[in-house]
Design goal:
- Helix content is about 50%, strand content about 5%.
- It contains 6 helices and 2 strands.
- Strands 1-2 form a two-stranded antiparallel sheet.
- It is flat, with a radius of gyration of 31 Å.
């Protein structure tokens, strides 16, 4: 067990226990490297009520219910109808399966081209998704490299398979 000796004194000359002095030293070091020190914190609901936070217009942006696990258990916004779940159910009842439902493409005839196209995509996708590559400057080049790698052959092969599958459906 550690000895509880005196290590430091406060400005009023009161002595601090060793553990208190060490904790104060750690806090002082953290304060030096904490980039958020001095940032004022406030409760979200308080800031919203005070007008310091303004919610965006739900017509221009919203967290869509399809982003959650189940659209039939939404948290309704004030602007949404109370019967939203029933509206979803009625919409879903009218849905028809896609014509391609059940189609499974076989890439074996274009394995080499598929690998080459995927390699092109792997080269550029991270930069495109992260915003470090400007799509206006990059996409035409990516598309051309994919065509060179065989994307048109892949599309033709899968289209032929789909046409044959639909004809036999």
């Amino acid at each position: 067990m550690r000895e509880r000796g005196v290590k430091a004194a406060r400005a009023d000359r009161a002595q601090l226990l060793l553990v208190v002095a060490e904790a104060a030293a750690r806090a002082a070091r953290l304060e030096q490297i904490d980039i958020f020190s001095g940032v004022k914190r406030v409760d979200f609901d308080t800031a919203l009520a005070d007008g310091r936070i303004e919610l965006t217009d739900t017509d221009s942006y919203s967290r869509e219910s399809w982003q959650v696990a189940n659209v039939l258990i939404p948290t309704l916004r004030a602007s949404e109808p109370a019967d939203k779940v029933k509206l979803y159910q009625a919409y879903n009842a009218k849905a028809k399966p896609a014509l391609t439902y059940g189609f499974m493409p076989d890439f074996s005839a274009v394995d080499a081209e598929n690998a080459a196209v995927n390699a092109v995509w792997k080269t550029y996708s991270e930069a495109l998704f992260s915003g470090t590559a400007n799509p206006a400057d990059t996409l035409d080049m990516v598309i051309q490299e994919m065509k060179t790698a065989g994307s048109d052959k892949i599309v033709a092969e899968i289209q032929a398979q789909l046409d044959a599958w639909l004809a036999n459906k």
